[in-house]
Amino acid sequence: MRRLILIAPKTENDGNAVRKAANRRAMAWRLGGQPGIERPHAIRGASLARSTAAFIASILMSVATFLAQASMSSPAGHRESPADEVVRPLQNALADAFNAGDVATVMSQYDPSIIVVAGSQTWDFVGQEQFIETAMAKPDRGRLRLEISYARELDRDCILARGRFHLMHKNAAEDTALFTVVYQRKHGDWKIIYAHSS
Fold it and tell me: Is 7 contained in some domain?
């Protein structure tokens, strides 16, 4: 290793101080830097530390966001939508009316313009009324339970809902099928304008 030797002039008053300053400069140059200037590897080290800290912070933020979203989508964090709050009471009231044999209350949920699709058959309001009356006239019409699995607002006055109906008979047999209904708000009341079951 080359050594840089500086010979400091001696003076009567400050010879020692000058020599010490010269030696400090020589040491600085020997180490690859200049007096008062930060060495390159120190600068790179500080920059790397800052980059690493930023990277770790971004990872932690991503994890926190994921956990927050998972919590919101979990059953414990579930909140019913406005559509759920509209549809569930209506479906419960329809099932209660059917179980009580109240045709008029059941039919009050349907709009006169309703279209009903059941398998390969299609009928209108009159056909739905005949279907309900025939079902209720049976000695063992069964007990109806409606299970809503999904409800969504299509717009402020229209809701799509889907679910499954369960018709339990006294002999423990069960009729069940999936259904989809569309509710429309007319003059402040929600009415079923479309119903499909399969």
Answer: no
